[in-house]
Design brief:
The structure is a single chain. The chain has 307 residues and is mainly α. It has 15 helices and no strands. It starts with a helix and ends with a helix.
């Protein structure tokens, strides 16, 4: 396992040499999680880099776990295989919280999660919610409420765990994380639409489509002159913006040590602004290009204590 791991890490961040095998294994696991998040969750990776250790190490472990389970549905063709892999993670989390390590495999993300769970009082329920969201997710929502419940479980739960890893247990921080997670989750769903044609899935609530008389097929075609599709995307983007603004209005009540956890709001806000300038056309070239200024803007907002 670790020979392959060496090859993956060799293309990324150099390893630090340690005397003991245990320390080497720990470094390998940390670098594995870092590279996993950097490859598959780039925007959140940029935010995580600005955290201080040991919180940064904990955050990378949590986000690496989320990447692992999020990638399952996109990498398997058989739903049963996907469910089996998610069940594996569900059982693993259960064993880690019970400190039953005899039957836990030596896998880098699991190794790092063990360290986090041992050192921080994390809530098991949030891990379970992340897994159940993937188990039950077909991204076919009837109502907006269903969509918000999905992003509450699949995105907000990560933020709650990161707050706990920072030692923050504060109702205002949780409230801000809930709104921010919903904004980020809705934006993630919007950004996924241009890539859903193969799965023939449109993660837009049926009630919104019916309100504007738009079919799922029209959303997938996403023609620039289709005003109905534009109105659908505008409505969802507006909902995401409302959640983001509610989170930002709570900033004054959020403890200082919690604000770095909320940095993903920077990327979410910038995407919504770019989407507005593109007239809510999801395949506009300006949206498909990388936001070159994002790292600098994230750093500046971190320096100012903003999100």
């Amino acid at each position: 396992m670790y020979s392959a791991l060496h090859q993956r890490i060799a293309r990324g961040i150099p390893l630090i040499r340690h005397a003991s095998n245990a320390a080497k294994d720990s470094t390998l696991a940390q670098n594995y999680c870092m590279n996993l998040v950097r490859q598959y969750d780039k925007e959140n990776f940029l935010c995580t880099l600005l955290l201080k250790n040991p919180e940064r190490r904990s955050a990378l472990a949590i986000r690496a776990f989320n990447v692992e389970i999020a990638r399952i549905t996109g990498t398997v063709s058989d739903d049963k295989i996907g469910q089996m892999r998610l069940k594996f993670w569900e059982d693993t989390i259960d064993k880690l919280f019970k400190n039953d390590l005899k039957h836990v495999p030596e896998q880098p993300v699991i190794q790092e999660l063990k360290e986090v769970i041992d050192s921080q009082k994390l809530t098991k329920r949030y891990f379970q919610r992340l897994i159940s969201a993937r188990l039950n997710a077909n991204l076919r929502f009837v109502t907006t409420k269903q969509m918000e419940e999905y992003v509450e479980n699949s995105v907000c739960s990560v933020l709650y765990l990161l707050l706990e890893a920072h030692g923050v247990r504060n109702v205002h921080a949780d409230h801000a994380a809930s709104h921010l997670g919903k904004a980020q989750g809705i934006v993630n769903l919007l950004r996924s639409i241009p890539y859903q044609e193969r799965r023939n899935v449109v993660p837009v609530p049926q009630e919104v489509l019916m309100q504007h008389g738009v079919s799922q097929e029209r959303v997938l075609r996403n023609r620039k002159e289709d005003k109905g599709v534009e109105e659908v995307i505008f409505q969802l983007a507006g909902l995401a913006h409302q959640h983001l603004e509610k989170a930002r209005k709570l900033a004054g009540s959020v403890p200082k040590q919690a604000k770095p956890v909320l940095l993903p709001g920077v990327a979410t806000g910038r995407y919504l602004e770019r989407l507005r300038r593109a007239n809510f056309h999801l395949t506009d070239s300006r949206l498909l290009q990388k936001d070159a200024m994002l790292p600098l803007v994230i750093y500046w907002n971190h320096f100012r204590g903003k999100f």
